[in-house]
# Entry
Amino acid sequence: MVIAGVGDPGDWFEKLSSLFKKLKDYVQMENPEIDSSEAEKGVIKHRSPVIPDDFRCPISLELMKDPVIVSTGQTYERSCIQKWLDAGHKTCPKTQQTLLHTALTPNYVLKSLIALWCESNGVELPKQSGASRSKKVGSSVSDCDRAAITTLLDKLANGSLEQQRSAAGELRLLAKRNADNRVCIAEAGAIPLLVELLSSTDPRTQEHAVTALLNLSINDINKGTIVNAGAISDIVDVLKNGSMEARENAAATLFSLSVVDENKVAIGAAGAIPALIKLLCDGTPRGKKDAATAIFNLAIYQGNKARAVKAGIVPPLMSLLKDAGGGMVDEALAILAILAGHQEGKVAIGQVDPIPVLIEVIRTGSQRNRENAVAILWSLCTGDSQLLMLAKQFGAEEALKELSESGTDRAKRKAGNILEILHRVDALVNQS
# Structure
């Protein structure tokens, strides 16, 4: 009655409570032959333990069998809240707040507490209806969730712009929530539809679509499905032309996909690296981190090192390295260390006056940063006596000796190698 009614649900609950009280009074009045003392004994004899309020559904006021959480954080019996939603309501019955989405998340903690309470109080454990919780073989996602996902996919495929935006937003949240949802959404065929929406002219829809794909890509099987759906070029396009949030999440998605080695090649070939460098330069702090992480992973592939150097990555990295307060020193050093192992990268780094800042990092940086800095210095100085002498002028010997004693194993080796080269050069100078 509450669900079917209009107006404030609180008023309906009050009316129903009053109605139940009248019914109880009527029953007692119509059965005067029952001895009150016997009736009281019967009540005492058969009295059930009082159900804690937190275990009752706010709608039915009965012990919950299958508690689920809505977007406001309130918990309801699944069948009750589903009826409420099916009736077209967009608000939380208890708080009257507008629901951000209609996804229902199982409240496993509360369900376990209810089971324990039932066991300790001799109450029969509530049985779930087979229809609402039957599961497909090999899946832990309920049919109810599947039905909701199918509805969302229909909106993606056939809905208005507003419905597509809303559906993509809900799938984004569902995919973020847990691993089961990521499997279920992909199995339902969402990925090709989301890839299509990457080309949407509506910025918010595009943001939802790329972020949903990011969340889905956490699953390794989904990575392959996303790439096979032709998503890489569209994600790169979002990275180039989308809103700042869309660009950030596009960068994060490319990083996620690049975990698979063959994808590193495809992403680099699709023109992602110049767009990532642009985000590294003009992005928000989070955007810069996303871009740097993606570039680092892509640069593991040799062909992408050359692409990054040609796209002009070295000067921005040096700027980030010199800006100690910018929060990007770690990332800049890590990428430069990878590029320094490539001949074109080594030449490009040598042209941006790297020696003073590298020596400073070796002196004062974290262990990881000192290791990367000395690796870069080793690459630059090997075979380049001019840079070697410049390093010596900036006090490299003292810093390297200290590092050879207190650094990581790799840092000690690199520092020792540079010191040996310095000593050989000194010996040659002395002989001449």
